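idk why but the lab printer keeps eating my pages so im just putting this in chat instead. protein + 1-O-phosphono-alpha-D-glucopyranose:
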Amino acid sequence: MRKKVTKAIFPVAGLGTRFLPATKSVPKEIMTLVDRPLIQYAIDEARAAGIKEFIFVTSRGKGALEDYFDHAPTLEQELRKKGKDKLLEVLKSTNMESGAIAYIRQHRALGLGHAVWCARRLIANEPFAVILPDDVIAAEKPCLQQMVEAYEETGGSMVAAMEVPPEQASSYGVLDVREDMGNMVSVSGMVEKPKEGTAPSNLAVIGRYILTPDVLGNLNKLKSGAGGEIQLTDAIAAEIDEERPVYGYRFRGQRFDCGSKSGFLQATIAFGLAREELRDDLSAYIHDIVQMGKAAQ
Ligand code: G1P
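predcted complex ->
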């Protein structure tokens, strides 16, 4: 029997410099889409996929994340006193079962592969998921759940994959495809941030992974790759060299790159429009400004 995926790593050590000055004192994972921080979307997706242990790889200045997932006795008491049951219910999704969440410090910013490696002792010898909270995915069935279901059939390591325009491939990890099976591809190689014009395909890695513990073994070598960083992509590619299977999974859903300002704003609009209580107001406003824009041309 295949071991179930019950642990997920959330690499949240990044400085978020693209969002300065906002991220000077607030971790970028606390930035909100509508009324929920990015990290909440990631946690909800993990829960839906059956994850029971949540491992945060943090850095200096990320204390707000720990507080976010803690109880807030004074606030809760106040809401209870005022009979605000709905809000108390909303707060519940921010609470974790005791011991279900762990924080590990990445002391030096040596790359995504290094961040995942920092959590190796908590993973031990089990398959695990990695979620990059910058990649927010709106989907009827949450992306990681789609992947866990596929993984239960195939085993091996699996990355979320999405077609991107060729000129954007150099911003991603890119898959070399051995066999295309529709939803899934089997992978014969992976390149992190290929130089322009050298990408092996236009199928890019998006921030959801299900990995076997062997990948941690590859990370043990701590070899640096693209940008001088220890890359997770390289450790997964090493699996292929050792003849272990790696798959790309074309998820169903819309991905927003919330690591970029434009992607973040698009996600704000999309998640706003998805809320019944905001939809009418927001779409009327969008309609108006589009009309005004057209009139001004
Ligand atoms: C990371 C990964 C890259 C992946 C991307 C998806 O890169 O290293 O392989 O394609 O996330 O968002 P980053 O965006 O952190 O540079």
